[in-house]
Amino acid sequence: MRIMLLGAPGAGKGTQAQFIMEKYGVPQISTGDMLRAAVKAGTPLGLEAKKVMDAGQLVSDELIIGLVKERIAQDDCAKGFLLDGFPRTIPQADAMAASGIDIDHVIEIDVPDEEIVKRMSGRRVHPGSGRVYHIVYNPPKVEGKDDVTGEDLAIRPDDEESTVRKRLGIYHEQTKPLVEYYGKVAEQGKLTYNKFDGTQSVGDVSEAIVKAIG
Ligand code: AP5
Ligand code: ZN
């Protein structure tokens, strides 16, 4: 099963990815997490990506496409995968199609911009795994600590309000066109396209996803 999550920054892609991975037994491919790991490791890719990410902009299509193709070629992706944060431009979607990498289910999570700005200020992440929390809506069992490892949680550098607003602008300009793009592919019967109201609770969104894709 090949699933793709589509939604604005902070819509809840990473949060639902944790659930979907467990439910359907497919690995998560989060381009954001992969880039953050490269930043942490101080690789040349990470050094290049850090400036762009901290400014709330997108890294180059070429770089991301190469990264994802390499990841999909790994053995654990043979049974399917969950794309989180990719494709997020038309050229990225075209590159997938040109490589014959088809998607079975597109899951759009819709949340209004103002709600997102509010949410991001309360987000906490576990840098090692990419697990996501919210201090009010989805708190860890112990304040400031990851549920699984007990390690410290962190605030993402790109969650500052002005950067979040910039990321939202880029989403509307460059990623939102994918709604129509994959809508058309769905009309041809090549995938299922479902849109979910991401302002519901985390559990309600998960439940709706399972109802829709089985
Ligand atoms: P990436 O890491 O993908 O960031 P994003 O798309 O901006 O999305 P987020 O991770 O911010 O949000 P999310 O939808 O996962 O929400 P979450 O579940 O965390 O990318 C980061 C950067 O990397 C980009 O800006 C770019 O520079 C670069 N990049 C990555 N991919 C790229 C690509 N393909 N091309 C080019 N550049 C790329 O939830 C947010 C908060 O809300 C959390 O606190 C959570 O607990 C809470 N929450 C979740 N669901 C609910 C709910 N239902 N109710 C209440 N609170 C909720
Ligand atoms: Zn995410």
Automatic annotation (TrEMBL):
| Residues given in the record as ATP binding sites | G10, A11, G12, K13, G14, T15, R123, V132, Y133, Q200
Q: Which residues bind AMP?
A: T31, R36, Q57, L58, V59, G85, F86, P87, R88, Q92, R156, R167
CDD domains, alphabetically?
Answer: ADK
Region annotation (LID) ranges: 122-159
Give GO MF terms, alphabetically.
Answer: AMP kinase activity; ATP binding
Q: List localization entries.
A: Cytoplasm
Q: What is its EC number?
A: 2.7.4.3
Any one annotated GO CC term:
cytoplasm
Key word RNA-binding present in the record?
no
Region labeled NMP — which residues? 30-59
Q: Which Gene3D superfamilies match?
A: P-loop containing nucleotide triphosphate hydrolases
Pfam families assigned: ADK, ADK_lid
GO BP term, pick one: AMP salvage
Function noted in UniProt: Catalyzes the reversible transfer of the terminal phosphate group between ATP and AMP. Plays an important role in cellular energy homeostasis and in adenine nucleotide metabolism.
Q: Quote the NCBIfam families the UniProt record gives.
A: adk, PRK00279.1-1, PRK00279.1-2, PRK00279.1-3, PRK14527.1
Q: Please give the record's comment on domains.
A: Consists of three domains, a large central CORE domain and two small peripheral domains, NMPbind and LID, which undergo movements during catalysis. The LID domain closes over the site of phosphoryl transfer upon ATP binding. Assembling and dissambling the active center during each catalytic cycle provides an effective means to prevent ATP hydrolysis.
| Subunit and interaction comment | Monomer.
Q: Which family does it belong to?
A: Belongs to the adenylate kinase family.
Q: What is this protein called?
A: Adenylate kinase
Per the UniProt entry, what species is this protein from, by scientific name? Answer: Shewanella insulae
